[in-house]
Each structure stands twice: as structure tokens, then as C-alpha cells.
Amino acid sequence: MGERKVLNKYIPADFDPKLVPRGKKPKDGLVTVRMMLPFTIQCSTCSCFLYRGRKFNSKKEPVKGVDGKYLGIQRFRFYIKCSECSLPMTFLTDPKNADYEMESGGTRNYEVWKDEKEVNAKFEKQLEEDEKIDSMKALENRVAESQREMAELDALEEIRAMNQRHIGLMKGGKKMDVAEAVLKAREAAVGVPDEEELNENGLTKDEEDLVKTIKFGASSAGGEVETSIRRLDEEDELLAEKQRREEAEAVMNKQRDAKNESEKKKNVPVFKVKRKKKKPSVPEPESKRAKPDAAKEQATNPDSDSSGGGRGGLGGLLGGYGSDSS
Q1: Inter-residue contact 40 to 50 (CB < 8 Å)
Q2: Which residue in 10, 105, 172, 280 has its CB near the most CB atoms, within 10 A?
Q3: Cα separation, 153 vs 159, whole angstroms
Q4: Per-residue pLDDT for the chain (326 aa), expressed as one digit of tens each?
Q5: Cβ contact 198:208 at 8 Å
């Protein structure tokens, strides 16, 4: 690929240009050109849109006849086909308007910028005709034009004054810098009168005298002392900084105390007491119920004990444990 993109190619010593075959002429004078559409076209058969910038392999031929040239500039005709129905379309170059002109096969979409110049030209032509017919209309137009020019000059002078003030504020001393010298030279060439010089604070001499006559903080005629405005110095700034620190420390201490109280509440031990579960009531058997009745009868009739014979109540209670010999 690199050998095709060189500026100088090798020509051998025995090269004979007469032996190079001539190229064939294009058929019917048509030359194949790869191009993009210069405007959007709508096909007149299938109503398909071919948008601007779409690439086509078109055929180009020079226009013949009376309309073939404009002021010696050759016009060309391009042939393309619709991508949907393959209908041939043609459009021509328009050197008069530096544009293209649709010829057949489709319609060109409306473009606002194309008609802007035509509308402006028609408006100016209509204005000239009205001025020729009506002299009062011409006078009104001239007055409006002069008023517009005066407004533009006033705006220009205001911008110059603002630039002059900015230059006076930016310069360090009385030494004239390059920008100020250029501005003064331009004003002298235009004929603008020199303005009053500004001091280091950007004020004129009259403004500076007016500021000096004002006494800030002086007592008024009624005897009341006027409030004066004082700029904060370093001591005031230190006091303000100290007050801000104290307020910040107070807020931090308050937050720390609240945190400690919450931690104390968390550390308190909690005792949980579980209640004993009640056993379900079960009805007692008849044998267990009869024992208390027998005990009551034995207590009321101690002599009726069969095991004790003639023993007393204590003997009856101890009779079941046996004798000393056993």
C-alpha cells in the first residue's frame, strides 16, 4: 500500500511514453463519479426520501446547448437512481447561485436558509420603491436610521468609558501602560475628547474632594452621635475566633455528656425472674383419700387398735418399729 502513496515514482531509462496505451473514452460521454447528495430529495414515484449526504455512484456529463454555460463556467448534469424503485433522477449545477438545481425524477425539500437572501432582497427592493413614491416615508426611514446610529455611538462611548475606568483600576501607579497608550491614540484619531484622569482608587478629582468633605462618625446638629462604621482589625477577628471555639467546645461537651449517659444506661445489670409453672391438678385415687379417714378414727378411738392390745396410744404408734431385741 505504501508504494502507491509516494510523490516521486521510479521511471526506468528505457521508458517510452509512446508505448503506453491510450485510455478508452467513456461511453456516451458519461463519467462515473462517487458523490454525496447536496440536498434532500423526495422521489416522485415511491415518495421515498434520499437525505442529504448519502453517497451514490452517479454519472456525470456536461450540459449542452444554450444553458450549458454561465459566464463561461461549464454546467454539469448528474444521474442517480432511487434506492427503492430505481427511478432515474437528474440534477444540475447552478454556478449563478453557487448551488444545485433539481431537474427531474424528484422534488427538493424546502430549506429556510435558501430563501433568506431572496426575502431580504425583495424587502429592500420594496422599501426603495416605497421611498420613491412617498417622500414622507423616505424621511421617516432616514430619521429612524439616524436615531439608530446615534444609539450605537452612545453605546460605543459608554464601552470606551468603562474600558478607561478598568484600565485606571488595573494600573499600579501613574505610569502609563501600553493598553492605555493605544486607547488614547485611538481616541485622538477618532476625535473623542479626553476624559478626566483617575487616581489610584479609580475616582476623579471632584469625587475625591467630595469624599474628603464627608466626616464619618461626626455629631449631627441635634447633638446625637451618628453611628460610625469601623472595619474589623486583627484583635476583633481573634475575639470572634475565640468565641466560635468556645461555642464549639460547649457543643462538643454537651454531646459527650449525652453519650456517657446513654452508655451508663446500657451498663446497668438487668435481672430476669422466671415464674414457676403451675402443675396441672390431677384427681387423687380412692385409696389415698381413705387414709385420712382412717387416721381420724384411730385418733378418736385409741383403745380399738388391734396391734396394740392393752397398750396406750404411744405404744400403738411405736408398735410398728419392733422390740429392742430385734
Answers
A1: yes
A2: 105
A3: 10
A4: 566 777 888 889 999 988 888 877 777 778 888 999 998 998 988 888 899 989 989 999 998 888 888 888 999 999 999 888 888 999 999 998 888 888 888 888 887 777 787 888 888 888 888 888 888 888 888 888 889 999 999 999 989 888 887 777 666 544 455 666 667 777 777 665 555 677 776 677 877 887 777 776 555 445 454 555 667 778 888 898 999 999 999 999 999 998 888 887 777 666 666 677 766 666 666 555 555 555 555 555 555 444 444 445 555 555 555 555 54
A5: no
Residue 36 near residue 55 (C-beta atoms within 8 A): yes
**Grid cell in block for residue 100:** 444545485
What whole-number distance in Å separates Cα of residue 90 and Cα of residue 92? Answer: 7
User: In 3D, which of 160, 221, 220, 214 has the Cα closest to residue 190?
Assistant: 160
DSSP 95-164: TTTTEEEEEESEEEPP-HHHHHHHHHHHHHHHHHHHHHH-HHHHHHHHHHHHHHHHHHHHHHHHHHHHHH
Confirm if 108 and 102 have CB atoms less than 8 A apart.
Answer: yes
At residue 200, what is the residue type? E
Residue 129 to residues 106, 117, 143, 145: CA-CA distances in angstroms? 38, 18, 18, 17
Torsion sign across C-alpha atoms 113, 119, 125, 130: negative
Identify residue 266 by its one-letter amino acid code.
K
Measure the CA dihedral 288/289/290/296, to 10°.
Answer: 110
Report whether 198 contacts 207 (CB < 8 A).
Answer: no
Report how far residue 229's alpha carbon sits from residue 224's, in angstroms, rounded to the nearest whole number.
16
Cα–Cα distance, 65 to 38 (Å, whole number)? 24
Element housing 94 (H / E): strand 88-94
How far apart are the C-alpha atoms of 52 and 45, rounded to whole Å?
19
Please state the three-class secondary structure of 103-116 as a single string: EECEEECCCHHHHH
